[in-house]
Write a structure and sequence with these properties.
Length: about 190
């Protein structure tokens, strides 16, 4: 499986089709537009601090991934006849066999299952790359993100330290089941 060419077709909870695909450098403007649709509270939950501006260096880091140690997927759907990136997820290898994950979904598309889909597809890629552990630091009050990890079907351990919950998942022995609303094309299908 070539992560840089990853593409899977899914169905959102509201019945709309969505493409889970590899992030491309050409997605820069669409990603910046998606960030504009993310409210202050959602940005705080993602970055643990108020964020209203990203430097060019930060933007390049988030957009120009190598698909080796840094893998990023986006959720793209059609709105008014145009493709719209509604969310993204990524993992970055932090130690041999281990990667840290992060997700963001724009506010208008919360609650549609996008985070769950991104999580499942990133876990599939991680497993194919022989990673065994996926980790994430999540604000303890971020119940929606913690629910995404619980729905992943991966064995999981949680450890709370102050206002942050450390999520550690074993992606070697994950559930092969799909959510009630998910219909997946084979990974990498076009």
């Amino acid at each position: 499986m070539e992560a840089a060419d990853y593409l899977a077709l899914e169905t959102l909870r509201d019945g709309r089709p969505v493409r889970i695909r590899a992030l491309k450098p050409a997605d820069r403007e669409a990603m910046l537009a998606a960030v504009e649709r993310i409210g202050d509270a959602s940005l705080y939950r993602r970055f643990f601090a108020p964020r209203h501006h990203f430097t060019e260096t930060e933007i390049a880091y988030y957009i120009e991934v190598d698909f080796g140690d840094h893998v990023a997927l986006v959720a793209e759907l059609e709105e008014n006849g145009k493709p719209v990136i509604a969310g993204g997820g990524r993992y970055i290898v932090s130690a041999p066999g281990c990667a840290e994950m992060a997700f963001a979904v724009d506010d208008p598309h919360h609650g549609l299952g996008i985070g769950t889909l991104l999580m499942r597809h990133l876990a599939t890629i991680a497993k194919a790359r022989n990673l065994h552990t996926l980790e994430a630091d999540v604000l303890a009050d971020n119940a929606p993100m913690l629910a995404v990890f619980r729905r992943s079907g991966l064995p999981m351990k949680l450890a709370r330290d102050g206002g942050v919950t450390k999520v550690v998942m074993d992606c070697r022995h994950g559930s092969e089941t799909k959510g009630e609303h998910d219909h997946t094309s084979p990974p990498g299908a076009h």
